[in-house]
Design brief:
Number of domains: 2
Number of helices: 3
CATH superfamily of the largest domain: L,D-transpeptidase catalytic domain-like
CATH topology of the largest domain: L,D-transpeptidase catalytic domain-like
Largest sheet: 8 strands, mixed
CATH class of the largest domain: Mainly Beta
CATH architecture of the largest domain: Beta Barrel
Number of strands: 8
Distance between the termini: 25 Å
Helix content: 25-40%
Structural class: alpha+beta
Order of helices and strands: HEEEEEHEEHE
C-alpha cells in the first residue's frame, strides 16, 4: 500500500515540476517588485538555543529565545498525526527532547538524533507490550536521491523522522549544537 502511494506522490511532484517552467515565468512576471527584501544574518553570527517543530504547519524553527532565527518546510512520518506510540507506526513523536548526537554517515544526508524515547515513552509502550522504537532524527534526503530529490518536497515520507532538503540540513548542522532542546508539538 505504501509503494503505490509513494509512486502517486512522485508522479504528482514530477507533473508539478514539469509545469513550473510554463507557469512559473508567468507568475514571476506578475510579481510585485516592491516586496521588501529581508536580509539574512550570516550563519556565523546566529545563536540557536532551541528548536521548535510544529507538525501541523510542517515547519521547523531554529530559535534564539522567542526569536525565530530560521524556518524550514519539513516532511514527517508517513502517518503524521498524533504522538509516536511504537516502532513502525510511522509517527513523529511529540514532546520535549534533546538533540543529543549527530551522524555524518547515515542512510540520509546527515542526521541529528532526537532523544526519543523518553522514560515516559518507554513506559507507555511497555504497558501496551510494544517497543517504542528509536532512531528518530532530523535528516536530509535519502543518499542517492539524485535527480529525484524534488519528488520528496512537500510530502510526508519518513518513518517518523523530520526531513529537510540537503542544503537546509547543512545549515541546521552548522547552527545547532549537540545538547540543544527540541520541542515537537502537534
Amino acid at each position: 500500500m505504501a509503494i503505490p502511494r509513494l509512486l502517486t506522490r512522485c508522479f504528482l511532484a514530477f507533473f508539478i515540476a514539469l509545469s513550473l517552467p510554463v507557469y512559473g515565468s508567468e507568475l514571476l512576471a506578475r510579481a510585485d517588485t516592491r516586496m521588501p527584501v529581508i536580509e539574512e544574518s550570516p550563519a556565523d553570527s546566529l545563536v540557536v538555543n532551541r528548536v521548535l517543530v510544529k507538525k501541523g504547519q510542517r515547519r521547523l524553527y531554529l530559535m534564539n529565545g522567542e526569536e525565530i532565527v530560521r524556518s524550514y518546510r519539513i516532511s514527517l512520518g508517513d502517518n503524521p498525526e498524533g504522538h509516536k506510540l511504537y516502532e513502525g507506526d510511522e509517527r513523529t513523536p511529540e514532546g520535549d527532547y534533546t538533540l543529543d548526537w549527530r551522524n555524518s554517515s547515515s542512510d540520509f544526508y546527515k542526521s541529528i538524533h532526537i532523544s526519543y524515547p523518553s522514560a515516559l515513552d518507554r513506559e507507555m509502550a511497555e504497558n501496551w507490550g510494544l517497543d517504542p522504537g528509536g532512531s528518530i532524527m532530523i535528516h536530509g534526503l535519502p543518499n542517492g536521491a539524485g535527480d529525484m530529490a524534488f519528488a520528496y518536497t512537500g510530502l510526508d515520507w519518513t518513518n517518523g523522522c523530520i526531513a529537510v532538503n540537503n542544503q537546509e540540513m547543512d545549515e541546521i548542522w552548522q547552527l545547532v549544537n549537540d545538547g540543544t532542546p527540541i520541542r515537537i508539538i502537534p
